[in-house]
């Protein structure tokens, strides 16, 4: 037994407790102060009813510039459709001239958009769709119409299908790939269509038909290749004497000069690629 001191509140008798009771008497519960923390709930922002196609301020001048740029894009689209109709009617040369005009309008809409400050994601998607119509569909139709009389239709159809498929891949890859200010990754569809249209316009009758089919197929694969091809801004920086060679060649023998220029540009991609690998 353990003697426990008196409590002041006891009635006078000695309080007694066993050792077990003293050791295992539970302590008083610890009181915890709970302070409520206010929770701020942010209401979701309402979604806009419509998406603006023209970023920035909507002044009358910017709207007119935006309409002008998209008019150039639609002109390229319309000329591509016209090239298809003319090729189906047998007017292959005029159809090729329409393709050249498509190339002009395609370059014009991008230059105007940057100059006037109305570049937009809508314009980029619009340009890509117009390019697919003009350079991915109209160009193969014109090529097929120009080759159908000199090679078997199956060979002309396969080469044209390669152009259409590779153009679609090239445009889709361009939309999702990072841009390089110095080189193209593969031959651009605009340049490929320009080469095909000029080939039809100047009429390379001295070359065998199957050689032309091989050249068309090679150009199609060059569009989806990973070889670096110099942009026009880098080409114009070449030594002046080197730029005069194509001009002199065009004055002497324009058709052969055209073939050599295209072949040199196509070969420059693998050469630059191998040079970069070595470095």
Question: What does the model show?
Answer:
The protein has 279 residues and is mainly alpha-helical. The chain has a domain of 172 residues: Four Helix Bundle (Hemerythrin (Met), subunit A), CATH 1.20.120.1760. Helix content is 65%, strand content 4%. The chain is built from 10 helices and 4 strands; from the N terminus they run E-E-H-H-H-H-H-E-H-H-E-H-H-H. The strands form 2 sheets. It has a two-stranded antiparallel sheet. Strands 3-4 form a two-stranded antiparallel ribbon. The radius of gyration is 38 Å and the shape is globular. 28% of the residues are buried. Keywords: Membrane, Transferase, Transmembrane, Transmembrane helix.
Keyphrases for this structure?
single chain, 279 residues, two-stranded antiparallel ribbon, disordered N terminus
Please give a quick description of this structure.
With 279 residues, the chain is mainly alpha-helical. Helices cover 65% and strands 4% of the residues.
């Amino acid at each position: 037994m353990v003697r426990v001191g008196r409590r002041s509140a006891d009635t006078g008798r000695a309080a007694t407790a066993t050792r077990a009771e003293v050791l295992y008497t539970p302590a008083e519960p610890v009181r915890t102060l709970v302070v409520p923390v206010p929770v701020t709930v942010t209401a979701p922002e309402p979604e806009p009813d419509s998406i603006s196609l023209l970023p920035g301020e909507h002044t009358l001048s910017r709207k007119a510039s935006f309409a002008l740029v998209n008019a150039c894009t639609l002109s390229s689209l319309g000329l591509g459709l016209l090239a298809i109709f003319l090729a189906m009617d047998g007017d292959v040369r005029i159809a090729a001239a329409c393709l050249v005009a498509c190339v002009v309008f395609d370059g014009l809409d991008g230059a105007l958009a940057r100059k006037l400050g109305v570049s937009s994601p809508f314009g980029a998607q619009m340009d890509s769709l117009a390019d697919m119509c003009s350079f991915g569909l109209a160009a193969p139709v014109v090529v097929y119409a120009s080759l159908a009389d000199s090679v078997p239709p199956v060979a002309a159809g396969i080469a044209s299908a390669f152009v259409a498929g590779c153009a679609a891949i090239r445009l889709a890859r361009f939309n999702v790939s990072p841009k390089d200010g110095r080189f193209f990754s593969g031959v651009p569809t605009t340049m490929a269509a320009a080469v095909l249209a000029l080939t039809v316009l100047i009429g390379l009758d001295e070359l065998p038909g199957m050689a032309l089919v091989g050249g068309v197929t090679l150009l199609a694969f060059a569009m989806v290749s990973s070889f670096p091809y110099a942009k026009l801004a880098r080409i114009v920086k070449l030594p002046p004497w080197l730029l005069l060679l194509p001009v002199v060649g065009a004055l002497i023998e324009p058709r052969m000069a055209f073939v050599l220029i295209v072949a040199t540009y196509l070969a420059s991609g693998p050469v630059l690629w191998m040079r970069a690998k070595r470095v």
